[in-house]
Amino acid sequence: MAAVLPEALRRHLADLQRRAESDDQTGRIFHAALRACNDTGWSYRQLGDALGVSHFYVSSRIKQASPDIKAFGFEIPARPWPVSVLEPRPLPLEISYDLRALLDRAVSDRTPERTANGLAPAVAAFFQALRAATEPAGTRTNWPCHWA
Q1: Which of 64, 107, 123, 129 has the fewest CB atoms within 10 Å, i.e. is most exposed?
Q2: For 20-43, how does the pLDDT look when each residue is reduced to its tens digit (9 = 90+)?
């Protein structure tokens, strides 16, 4: 799930955006603030969603930003990255091979058959195996396959 802009940051940007419509200097500050947000990890899409505009709008404003403006009157928090929150854990080699084989099959399988939820059977098998692989080690009761 994508990170959502903190409410305080969203309010500051929305205020700058509103004031930028009638003031060129505020517009330059707004563009620089968007650029600083993007530099700290917030994507065009996240910024656009927070402001109720398209990511193309955000992109064009960032391209207009002056690198000379550094002060915005508020702090821009870095985007929290999921990798820094969740520590990856290694999978057993046989499970990694199985997942890779299932993914290859899911990508290449062109069957017209579909499961009840609309997935191709190979895709459904991949997600079933992926779900089983994320169970804590020692609790995997029904590993779906092992292809050598």
Answers
A1: 107
A2: 999 899 999 999 999 999 998 889
Return the HEC string of 76-139.
CCCCCCHHHHCCCCCCCHHHHHHHHHHHHHHHHCCCCCCCCCCCCHHHHHHHHHHHHHCCCCCC
Collect all residues with Cβ–Cβ distance below 8 Å to 79 and sequence separation of at least 6.
3, 40, 41, 42, 46
- Read off the tokens for 54: 């398209």
Q: Tell me the C-alpha to C-alpha distance, in Å, between residue 127 and each of 35, 46, 75, 109, 114.
A: 37, 27, 40, 14, 14
Looking at residue 1, what is its pLDDT? 42
Query: Based on C-alpha coordinates, what's the Rg of the chain?
Result: 23
Predicted structure pTM score: 0.55
Amino acid, res. 59: S
